Amino acid sequence: MQLIMGLCIGLAFTLIIVPFVDELQCTYEQTNIVANLNDDSSTKSTQIKENARPRSRPRFVSTELGIREKVLFVFTTNVDSLGSRAVAVNKTLSPHPSKVLFFVTAVSQSFTIPAQLPLVTFINEKIVANQTLLRSLDYVAEQYGAVYNWFFFAPDNVYVNSEKIMHFLDHISVAGYNLIGKPVKSEYPDVLTCDSSAGILMSSVSIHTECSIANAA
Question: Is the pTM for the entire model greater than 0.70?
């Protein structure tokens, strides 16, 4: 009888003590594992921070995604009409298109530029006809060729309905060579060109092509 009671008491103590010991052992091992993981992760994090280089990202999301503005309006002008026609065109068009730029060729910088007129000046002692247009074409292609899909060139004495142009561009593809304007005969037989005095609408592909041809010539 005493033997049986002794066995029962022994089994009871075993059932009570063993789970408690096992729980302590698991908790201890788990604590060590977590500590080791923390040490490893902190070491790796330090190494990553030391080896990581700051990533250069474009300033604007549109640049990163390759999104272009719709159209850049370019007007050639002269020193005498800066305060009249150029100002009038700028006030008329500025609220509508993406951007408006004016270009002028002058013998010096000694002239007054109207306030809020976006003007690019070419200094040249000898002013040649169409020189401003050709230089503005090259300037725009270099500075804005990758920013806009379309470019409209015209002298400041041309009336431009910007809303109709914007509506027209909504229904035409920018892909490929697009040179749109008033056709006139060129100096080459059976070859037509656009009349620069009436305004020329060019796609980004065509402006780069024309500049390449002009520079090659």
Answer: no
Instruction: Band the pLDDT of 43: cuts 50, 70, 90.
Output: very low
Check whether residue 21 and residue 106 sit in a common domain: no
User: Average pLDDT of the chain?
Assistant: 75
- Give how far Cα 15 sits from Cα of 7, 22, 27, 70, Å: 12, 11, 19, 81
Q: 54-84 pLDDT, tens per residue?
A: 444 444 444 444 568 899 999 999 999 999 9
In this structure, the answer to whether residues 129 and 36 fall within a common structural domain is no
Q: Are residues 107 and 151 in the same domain?
A: yes
Residue type at position 34: V
Conformational region of residue 173, where left means phi above 0, alpha means psi within -120 to 50, and beta covers everything else:
beta
The structure tokens listed for 185 are: 């005969």
Which of 9, 31, 52 is the last residue in one of the domains?
52
Write the CA distances from 212 to 46, 137, 178, integer angstroms.
51, 11, 15
Q: How far apart are CA 19 and CA 50, in angstroms?
A: 47
Q: Are residues 84 and 187 in the same domain?
A: yes
Domain identity same for 27 and 45: yes
Cα angle value 90/73/101 (rounded, 5°) = 60
Residue 43's domain comprises 1-52
Q: Rounded distance, CA 217 to CA 197, Å?
A: 22
Return the exposure string of 161-198: e unless at least 16 CB atoms fall within 10 Å of the residue's CB, then b.
Answer: ebeebeeebeeeebeeebbbbeeeeeeeeeeeebebbe
